[in-house]
Specification:
This is Sporulation protein. It holds the Pfam family Spore_YtfJ. It comes from Streptomyces jumonjinensis. By secondary structure, the chain is of the alpha+beta class. The chain folds into 2 domains: about 70 residues, no CATH class; about 30 residues. It is built from 3 helices and 6 strands; from the N terminus they run ααββββββα. Strands 1-2-5-6 form a 4-stranded antiparallel β-sheet. The relative contact order is 0.12.
C-alpha cells in the first residue's frame, strides 16, 4: 500500500518544482519583454529622436502530477504559454518638445470612411421612405 505521507511529499515536490520552473521562466522572459526588445533602441538623426511605444506581454500556465494507489498509477497535466507585442506609436523629440504620434490601424480608417459613405447613401433613402409612409397615413 502507498504511504499517504510519501504521496503528499511527492505531489508537493512536483508542485513546487513546477512553480519554481514557471517563476524562473517568468523572471527571465519578463525582463526581456520590453519595447526595446521588440522594436529596438530609440533612433536619433538630424536633430530628431524617435522612441517606439508598444504593448508587450506574456503569460504562462503550468501543471503537476502524482502517483496514486497500490498499483502506482501516475496522473499529470501540463501547461503552456504565449506572448505578443503590438506597436502603439512613437514619441518624437524635436527642438526640446516631445510629441506622441499614434500608429493607427489602416482598417479602422477604411471602416470609418465606408460607414460615412454608406450612411450618406442610405440616409436620404430612409428619409424619403419615412416621408412616403407619413403621406399614406
Amino acid at each position: 500500500m502507498t504511504d499517504p505521507e510519501n504521496t503528499t511529499t511527492a505531489v508537493g515536490g512536483t508542485v513546487r518544482a513546477t512553480t519554481d520552473l514557471l517563476e524562473r521562466l517568468a523572471e527571465r522572459l519578463g525582463g526581456k519583454a520590453s519595447v526595446t526588445a521588440v522594436f529596438g533602441e530609440p533612433i536619433v538623426g538630424e536633430g530628431v529622436t524617435v522612441i517606439p511605444v508598444a504593448a508587450a506581454g506574456f503569460g504562462f500556465g503550468g501543471g503537476a502530477g502524482h502517483e496514486t494507489g497500490a498499483a502506482r498509477t501516475s496522473e499529470g497535466g501540463g501547461g503552456g504559454g504565449g506572448g505578443g507585442a503590438k506597436p502603439l506609436g512613437f514619441i518624437e523629440l524635436r527642438d526640446g518638445r516631445a510629441t506622441y504620434k499614434p500608429i493607427r490601424d489602416p482598417w479602422a480608417e477604411i471602416a470609418l470612411s465606408l460607414t460615412v459613405v454608406v450612411a450618406g447613401v442610405l440616409a436620404p433613402r430612409a428619409a424619403r421612405a419615412i416621408a412616403a409612409r407619413r403621406r399614406r397615413t
